[in-house]
Structure formats: structure tokens, C-alpha cells
């Protein structure tokens, strides 16, 4: 049977998710075709590319949902006590008159939306998209590998994550609504929340939050093991450690962070579940009084133990989002400056240093717990130390622009915007690293502004850069450049319109958890007008994502077809595959002959030398379209 070819004349692979069959070899003697059902190709697939797309689509859906929660919260902060327009009746219908009387957000509903916004954005949106989505799709391709090291484990990791997302969403539908104890789930509040009359023992928001987190963490651990094993074991011949693309290095460091830091949090979540369901007291202290009565399960537990276990993951989690975005930005910079990164090894060693030091700074989130001067000094020192490799990374990227023939493509615009967003996020974190200044700024909107600059603009600029950059490899079509630029400018402007005013409000002492936005505090009156600036920016930012959503789905079927398997004229191995890649990824085994970013090599006839070409090719590549 003749093999189907794509529009470039390349044979189409029989991929799970790309084609309809998989070629297998039995006993090394002959091949036969196995027909795959629709469920095996698109749902319960073991193909790393399909799983990467599953992670990405699920994470983008969660992002939109969690972003919607924030949009509603911004109304409450700007117009406290007034009915939410348009969806106010829906809030009352879904959550009941006790939670949203007349479409007005109550403190309980506000707390619920805040807890779920933070939880879902961090653990079920940004991290899965950057680490698991891009990691699954891109890493095996950049390694020259046919798939991940453990394909079935890979499938299990996604479905564990997906089940966690579903359980978390179910929390909105149970009596009392979703979890209300914050995205950090601090005990003793989290031990006693959603208990008593009117609440089911398991089908309540806080318990479902814990169960969802256990499934989510299990999926992340399985994915981390797979990423590490794949990078170590499945590199193509000639692909030494110092020839790896920087995105692969970023994924490797991130995988080790998750593997080391997530188990303590999963253990803590299980212990908190036992506190809630079986009457243990891992985190319930002696003498706990609830509603005027002694809490029956309190018996010597430590609420601070939860904080240590949570933040041991909670702070590396920041770098779990930033490191993959750093890797993406490094890829896009090298390709669009048409020159190697200014110092590849410095970039790699800085990421390794960040990964190591990030495990030693978790308790700077706990200065107000009275941990003692000696311990505080230890965490202050390492908090400042981690800024050094971060600054070095930014410097490498900045110097990489010097002398480059810069192409201002849409991926490059998002990558360029990543630099100042990362810079603001990092610099605003320094005052929080010292106990003296942290005492003043702790639990104010300054913390929210700093944290969001790292987790939202910085991480999402990298996310969008990667989506625009690798979209043609995944689909064979280009995203529209004009609408991509509209999306970029609306995103970068209104991101800052949301988060920069938070820093100003924080300096005046506006508390991060006031559900009325500070309206009830006299000293906040001069800066209350910034609530309107932030809310309007958030609503326009939401509108600004519509061009991206339409562009994304339109381009999948109607976008301009790529003219080459390597439309960006790049050098790394993912561009050596057919477009889109078939089962097994590569038509023939590949070998690596040079470093990752051989751009503008003196004496070469082209300005790029791919890793997989033994000698410089003299075949002219098609010109990049400016449209």
C-alpha cells in the first residue's frame, strides 16, 4: 500500500494522533500494521505529541476558567457590595442565595474564587502548559528520540492530572462551594473548613481540593520521572550534554525540582486529608477552639509543619514556571537574532544554580512565624544569592541581542517582553527577602504584585512565545502574524495595568485579602482609584485574548501552510522531522554533528547550520514571509 505524503512530499507517519496506524516490528524480522481506534489515537494515546497537546489544551481551558474567576473578583474589589453585571443571576443560581444574594459576592464566595484562582492558575494551568505541554511535545523531538522513555507512564501522568482537574472543578458544585482556605490551604483553618452541619464528609470543597491536589501531584511526579529518563537515555548519537538545546536543560532542571519538592507536599496533603476524615491531628494544635467549643481532634499537631512542607514546594514552584519559559525565550532569541546565545554554558550553569538554590529559600515566606534570627539570616542569604544566577541569565539574553540581525516576529516580541517582566518580578522580590522590609510589606498587595509579575506576565510571555514558535511544527500552518501582534500589544500593556498598581497599593498597606479592596480602611482611600485601573485593565486583557483564541483555532484549519519543514530556518532537531511529525518522529535515525545554535557561521553560505546536517547544505532555503 503506497504511503501517504504531506504537501512537502514527506511521508506521513502513522502516528497516534497523526495517522491511523502504528508500525511495529516483531522478532526483528518483519513489520505489520496495527490499526488504532479513535480512543487510542486521540484520548488514551501513548504518543508524546498527542499527550503534549492534551496537556496544553487542558491547561489553556483551566487558564481561561481561572482567569474568569479573577475577572469576577475584580468587580467585587472595584464595586464592593454591588451585583456582578451579566453573570450575577448565574452566581446566585449556581452557588445559592447564601453565597451570592442578588448576584452580590459574599466574603465566602470571594475567598472561594480567590483560593481556586490561585490553585488552578499555578498547579493546573501554567505549570502543566509550560512543563508538561511543551515538554512532552518538544523534548523528544529536540533529542532526536522516537518517543518518551516510558510512553504508558506518560499517558498515566496526563490522566492523573486530568482527574485532578475534574475533581477540583467538582468542588464548585458541592454544598458550600469550592475550597475557601486560600491556595496555600493553611491549617488550622483548612482542617476545620467546610465541616459540620450542611457539609458532606468527602463531597465538600476543602476535601475535594486536597484529593484533586494528590492526583495532580502524582501526575507531575510521573511526568518528571519520564522527562529525566528520556533526556538521559534517548539522546541522538552525537548529542552531548553541551550540545543540548537550552529548553531541554530547562526541562531537566524543572523535572528534578518537581521530583524533589513535590513529594513533601503530597505527603502533607494526605496528612491533612487524614486530619479532616479520620480525626488525626498532624496540623491541629492543642487547645483549638471552634465555635466556642474545643475541637475534638486537636492533639499536638503543628500548623507550621504544613507551612514548611508547602513552601518547600511552593517556592521552587516559581522556578518550575520560570525555567521552562527561560528555555523557550533562549530558543526564540537564538533563532531570531541569527546568532548563538552570548554564552551558552553560562546560561546552562545559571539554570542549574537556580535549581539548586531554589530548594534552600522556602522559609523566606515564613519570616512572620517567629522562626528566630539565625534561621532567618540563613534564608535571607540564600534568597539574595538566587538573584545572582537570575541576573546572569537576563544578562546573557540581553547581550545576545548585541550585534544580532533581529527578526521581530511574533514569537520574538513575546520573548523580548519576557525580559522586563522577569526583571520587574525579580527586583520587586528583593525587599521581601529581608526580614526588616518584609515585616512592612508582608500580606499587602505589594506581595501580590511581585508574585504575579513572576507567575503571570513573565511565565505567560514565555508560554505565548513558545506557542507562536512551535505552532507550525505541530500543525503545518502558521498563526496569523497581524493578529498575533494585536494579541501581543494588548497583553503586554494591560498586564502591567493590572499588576503595577498593586505595588503602589502595597506600599500604602492595602491588605491582600480584603474582599472590599480596602474600602473599609481609612488609610487606603487615596489609592482606591487604582482598583478601577486594575479592574478595567483586567477586563480589557480578557478581551485581548479573543484574537489569540480565534487565531489559534482558525489557523489550525485555515492558516497559511508552511513552505518547509523548517519554516523559521532553525538549527535544532525538532525541525528535522516531517511537518507535523508522524509516529516515531523521524523518517530516518538522526545524528548530531554540531552545537545547538550555529547561526551566522563565518564562511557559510547560509546563516544557519542545522545540527543534523553532516556538512553545510548548499540548497537554498525558501525566504521567510513577512506577512
TrEMBL record:
Q: Which UniProt keywords apply?
A: Electron transport, Heme, Iron, Membrane, Metal-binding, Oxidoreductase, Respiratory chain, Transmembrane, Transmembrane helix, Transport
State the GO CC annotations.
membrane
Enzyme Commission number(s): 1.9.3.1
- InterPro entries annotated for this entry? Cyt_c_oxase-like_su1_dom (IPR023616), Cyt_c_oxase-like_su1_sf (IPR036927), Cyt_C_Oxase_1 (IPR000883), Cyt_c_Oxase_su1_BS (IPR023615)
Gene Ontology terms, MF aspect: cytochrome-c oxidase activity; heme binding; oxidoreductase activity
Spell out the PANTHER family in the cross-references: CYTOCHROME C OXIDASE SUBUNIT 1 (PTHR10422:SF18)
What is this protein called in UniProt? Cytochrome c oxidase subunit I
